[in-house]
Every structure is written in C-alpha cells, then in structure tokens.
Amino acid sequence: MSVEIRVPQLPESVADATLVAWRRKAGDAVSRDENLADLETDKVVLEVPAPVTGVLQEIHIAPGTTVKSGELLAVIAPGASAAVGAPIAAAPPMPPPVSQEPKLGPAAQRVAEELGLPRETIAAAAKGGRVSKSDLVAAAGSTPASKPAAPAAPAVPAARKPTDAPVLPAIARGARAERRVPMTRLRQRIAERLVQAQSTQALLTTFNEVDLSHVNELRGRYKETFEKQHGVKLGFMSFFVKAAIEGLKKFPLVNASVESNEIVYHEYFDIGVAVSTDRGLMVPVLRDADALDFAGVERGIGQFAQRARDGTITIGDLTGGTFSITNGGVFGSLLSTPIVNAPQSAILGMHKTQQRAMVVDGQVVARPMMYLALSYDHRIIDGREAVQFLVTVKDCLEDPGRMLLGV
After folding, report:
1. Best CATH choice for the domain 3-78 from the list 1.10.10.10, 2.40.50.100, 3.30.1140.32, 2.30.40.10
2. Which of 72, 297, 313, 352 is 20–30 Å from 51 (CA)?
3. Please, are residues 278 and 267 in contact by the beta-carbon 8 Å criterion?
C-alpha cells in the first residue's frame, strides 16, 4: 500500500510555506527518515523526512509552490525497488569536482550558449575552476570548425585580414546579463518587518564612542583560562550584552514596547543578537540574559549562530525579545544607523574597532575606539533616556568593574 507524504504541521504563527526543492526525483529509492524536500517559512527551513523505506512513486507539488499543513506532497511505494534505469542515490547528488565541471557565472553561461562552445572547450578555458567571459571569448577563436557553430556574426569588412581576431556576436563583446530570482520567504519577511518598523515607529539614532582598552586588556589576560574552564572563547559580545543589560535596568523605557495606546514595560531581559546567514539576517533571542554569566552568554550566542547557519534554528528561538544588538563591525562597518526590530523599541549597533588618536590626561595616545549607535522609537523614548542609556553602556565597557559592582 502506498504511503502519502504530507506537509507537516506548521508552527502556530506560520500560515503556509514554500516548497523550495525536492532532494529526490520520482523513481528514486529513499530511506526512512531521509530528507526528501525543504519547506521554507518566513522564519525557518523545515525538512520533510521519508516515513518509510521504498521508492518515491509520485510527486504532486512542484518547487516554488506555496503549501499548507496537511497538503499532499508525494507518494512512496514502501519496500519497492527503484525502476530500471532510474537513478538510485543514497544522498543528494554532489556537484562534480572543479576539474571536471568548470564554474560559469551567469554572464559566462550566456556567452557559452550563444557561441555554442562544447564542454571540452569550456574546460580548457577554465582558470582555477572558474571561467570568465574573456576566457570564453578567447577560446572561441580556437574552436575547431567541426564544433557547433556560433550564431551568425556581423558581416566582416573586406579589409579584414586572415590574421585579425574573429568577429564575435555582440552578446560576447558587451553582454549585460540580468537574472530574476524570487525573494526567499525569509527575505520577504525581513523586508516586511523593516518597512513596518520605519512606517510605524518614530525612529531616531544617537551616537557615542567607546574606548575598548580595558575590555581588550581583560580578554588578553583571561581568554586562555576562560576557554579552558568554560569550553568557550571569551568574545566581545558578552561584554556588550552585559553592558546593555545594565543600561536597560537604569532606563526601563529602552526595554519597553508599544501596544496600541499602551506602553508595555518588560521586567525581564530577552536580548536578541543579530546573526548573518546565507539566507539573510536572523535575530535569535537569549532568554533571561541577565541571569547568564559571561560564559553562558558566549555559549548561547555561539550555539545560535551555528544553528542559524545550519538551518536548524527554530521559530521559538527567533520570537520575542525585548532589545537587540547588531554588530556591523565584523564586516568592516565604521558607522551605521540600525533599524529597530519591531515591536521592540531600541537596538544597539556595534561597529569596527579602530586605533585612533585620543587625548588622555593631556597626552595624545592611540586607543582602540568603536562608535556605538542606538536607534530608538522616539514615541516613547526621549533623547535624554537614549543618550544616558548609551553613556551607561560606554561607562560599563570602559570600566568593566562597574558591571560586577552594579554601579
């Protein structure tokens, strides 16, 4: 008896999903619990496992289709063998080695198709596994006449000599390729939330700068002992999370949110930490971050980052949060105005640390300086609270002992 494969029950806050890709084709042998397809929601990617071992008999939904919980995706014939001639694989097909199949960008792919270059000619033009447009243009001149002909080229002037370079189609000499790729569900959701934040909140950003000399000195002194004792590296983010919490305790409005005509004061500290992935920006939340020590913060951030990049993060990890921190400095950003992660009311932006000339006790010295940015909803947070919050963060980072003493 055939076994139906249906869309699994989606999380409560998710109405539908998009079928991104099938990992198997009709007629392929499949194993129990093997991932057959990927479903993308606006927050996470879900896998569809095979319920039994057998052969994927029918596929009812094409990639790119929007589906809902319980919808029929495919049918498996349990215990059957793959059809003769059908490919049987124990895992998704792996891309061939670079030496066998050169990599072509979109423009190079189009030029190869226009010129009708055979595979062996393209392979010969490869440099380091990747083929550029200029490589293909050069290879086209040495393509034997017996190979597939390229599209008709413009007429050659009578004065052209046999030794002149071959005249190529206009597409080969000045191609301006374009690709249209549908936005992923996650990217659509990110765009929606960013536009929503800017259209519903009165966003303003205030700036300050912080001297990280003492943080650097502490990390340098204890990082090896810290890692041996806790099994995790001592990074910068734990200092910023702890400093932000001190600021939130002093200025509760920065940790609040707006619902209708009410201000909701959160008496807990769920800190979202932005993580960049191939699919887009995610903001997993450290629950009750004020109850975590430095090792707990570093461990939590590391686990979230790994799961976000592996695609195993859950919706529960991404929902909620009372305040967020984002670090554009890892990409080299010197200054930015981060957008608040609605319905939160504020976000702290970290940036690149640079050695800059500073005046300390009347002397000009080089210090590791970072610009800080706080974007906030001016509907409930006034400039006074925003500036004083940022000063508190600065003071805690420039004198980390404050975080231990609570002063």
Report:
1. 2.40.50.100
2. 313
3. no
Q: Mapping DSSP to helix (H, G, I), strand (E, B) and coil, where does residue 197 land?
A: helix
Summarize pLDDT for 87-105 with one digit per residue, the tens.
444 444 444 444 445 656 5
Residues counted in the chain: 407
User: What are the start-end ranges of the H helices in 42-155?
Assistant: 106-115, 119-125, 133-140
Give which of 59, 56, 123, 124 is closest to 96, Cα–Cα.
Answer: 123
The domain spans of the chain are 3-78, 103-154+163-174, 185-405
What are the residue numbers of the active site? 378, 382
Q: State if pTM tops 0.85.
A: no
Query: What CA–CA distance (Å, rounded) separates 307 from 284?
Result: 10
**CATH T-level topology, domain 185-405:** Chloramphenicol Acetyltransferase (3.30.559)
Tell me the C-alpha distance between 284 and 286, whole Å: 7
Residue 84 confidence (pLDDT) above 50: no
| The residue type at 8 | P
Q: Tens digits of per-residue pLDDT, 335-386?
A: 999 999 988 999 999 999 999 999 998 999 999 999 999 999 999 999 999 9
